[in-house]
Amino acid sequence: MQLKLVSPKEEYAELFYLWRTQPTFIKHNPLKLQNLEECRARLLSEGDDLQSSTKCEAYRWFIELGGEIVGSVSVSNRNEMMKIAEIGYAVDERFQGKGIGSLAVGMLVTKVFAETDLRKLIAFVHDLNIPSCRLLEKVGFKKEGLLRQHYLINQKPENEVLYGLLREEIEAP
Ligand SMILES: CC(C)(COP(=O)(O)OP(=O)(O)OC[C@H]1O[C@@H](n2cnc3c(N)ncnc32)[C@H](O)[C@@H]1OP(=O)(O)O)[C@@H](O)C(=O)NCCC(=O)NCCS
Q1: Most C-beta atoms within 10 A of its C-beta, which of 86, 91, 107, 161?
Q2: Closest by alpha carbon to 86, among 171, 26, 160?
Q3: Would you say 73 and 87 are in contact if contact means Cβ atoms under 8 Å apart?
Q4: pTM for this structure?
Q5: In whole angstroms, what is the distance from residue 162 CA to residue 140 CA?
Q6: CA within 13 Å, CB half, 62
Q7: Termini Cα distance of the chain
Q8: What does the mean pLDDT of the chain come to?
Q9: Within its chain, how far is the Cα of 150 from the centroid?
Q10: Whose CA is nearest to atom 4 of ligand 1?
């Protein structure tokens, strides 16, 4: 599969917003961004250079498949003291179930460990988001715990599974 992680462009804001209105996203994720303008502002605030000395609140790349933008992956909550960060990802519903998410998150993890000295990546996943749990396990993340009623999703408290991946787990042959 010809998959690339590419830098954000302002024109991707509409797609980025569209994915947030799709049922698989709404069902399992807190809706932090409510409209196109908030999505545009978020993209403009994020970085794409993990090695830059100017640290950003979040970093994002878009997933390109055969010239088409089909999803995005991100790094946030980068903690330089603890050397950990959190990842996020979404694939357009029209392209889900084809292995794109697993491949793109695998590429993200390789990139982050190659370009930073972070020790560990974590992800929070709604415990009913089976594709997302499977994706992380395929990439090598381990389930570390269940956070009870941790996020409000559609005004309802929902459990989140905490997943973690250590640098040495990805570098091991
Ligand atoms: C989670 C998400 C990124 C997965 O993307 P994807 O491109 O469909 O992932 P993959 O095709 O690599 O599939 C990953 C695993 O999920 C499984 N899967 C995919 N869609 C599924 C579905 N509808 N039902 C059950 N399992 C599913 C796949 O079979 C695969 O497991 P397998 O290899 O053991 O068969 C995508 O569902 C998504 O964008 N969801 C909305 C946003 C979101 O929830 N992001 C995660 C926040 S923590």
Answers
A1: 91
A2: 160
A3: yes
A4: 0.96
A5: 13
A6: 21
A7: 23
A8: 96
A9: 18
A10: 101
Cα–ligand 1 centroid distance for 158 (angstroms): 19
Helix 13-20, helix 36-45: angle, nearest 10: 120
Q: What one-letter code names the amino acid at 105?
A: V
Q: Which two tokens stand for residue 159?
A: 């459990």
Q: Which atom number of ligand 1 is nearest to the Cα of residue 100?
A: 7
Q: What are the pLDDT digits (tens) for 138-164? A: 999 999 999 999 999 999 999 999 999
73 Cα–ligand 1 center, Å: 13
- Listed by start position, the domains of the chain span 3-171
* The CATH number of the domain covering residues in 3-171: 3.40.630.30
Give residues (CB < 6 A) around ligand 1. Answer: 24-25, 28-29, 88-91, 96-102, 123, 125, 129-132, 134-135, 138
